[in-house]
Amino acid sequence: MTVEDAYVPGYRTHRSKDGFANTNPGAKSNPGPLYKLPFGQVFVRAVSSSSIGALQGALETYLETGAKRKSNNTGVSAAGDPDVQVLIAETQSAIDEMKTVLFRNFAVLNEAARKGEQADLETRLRFRYQSAQISGRCCELISRMYYTSGADGIYRGNQIARTFCDIHTGRTHVANNPNSVGRNFGNVMLGAPNTDSFI
């Protein structure tokens, strides 16, 4: 359905800067801690959280198909490849670590919100950087999975190929660039003012 030439009154709109400044109009009628969380902290996790989930799904597919796959050239099973074995271990461990960090960080933010407070700037910047690191880390792991999937992995119908594209697409968003986020975080720790609005 398409709506054309419709007037939208101001009270039906939402300014994204209100979300980032914690000045949402609905906050008065929704006093729960959920509505007091810094929106920038919630927003950046939309991609990092989904990247972890996508990576987990890709790993499950990789275990089901990759361990049974044999090279068309050598006839050697992928399950016997030490690089594949280490990649599986690293990916599963990384998924656990990344989930642990995000859950811990969100618990800290929730506890502060319940008290009607916000975590201090350095904590929020650290959490922000850790969230951005997750996107980059998921990209590295899905890339290695893709590279070891053989020629079968390049087809669009292959879940590894689709997940490769999805995770890399999420990483391209400005909110998930660990380099720029890390520079700002490190610069603030050196005494410079913060320039990141996603906190």
Question: Short description, anyone?
Answer:
With 199 residues, this protein is mainly alpha-helical. The chain is built from 6 helices and no strands.
Q: What's the mean pLDDT score? A: 89
User: How many structural units, i.e. domains?
Assistant: 1
CATH topology name:
Butyryl-CoA Dehydrogenase, subunit A, domain 3
- Under the CATH scheme, which class? Mainly Alpha
Beta-strand percent range: under 5%
Identify low-pLDDT runs: none
Number of helices: 6
Overall, the morphology is: globular
Compute the separation of the termini in Å: 36 Å
Largest sheet: none
Q: Which value, in Å, is the CA radius of gyration?
A: 21 Å
Specify the CATH architecture: Up-down Bundle
- Which range best describes the helical content: under 10%, 10-25%, 25-40%, 40-55%, 55-70% or over 70%? 55-70%
- Which structural category do the helix and sheet elements fall into? mainly alpha
Helix and strand run: HHHHHH
Number of strands: 0
- What is the H level of CATH, i.e. the homologous superfamily? Butyryl-CoA Dehydrogenase, subunit A, domain 3
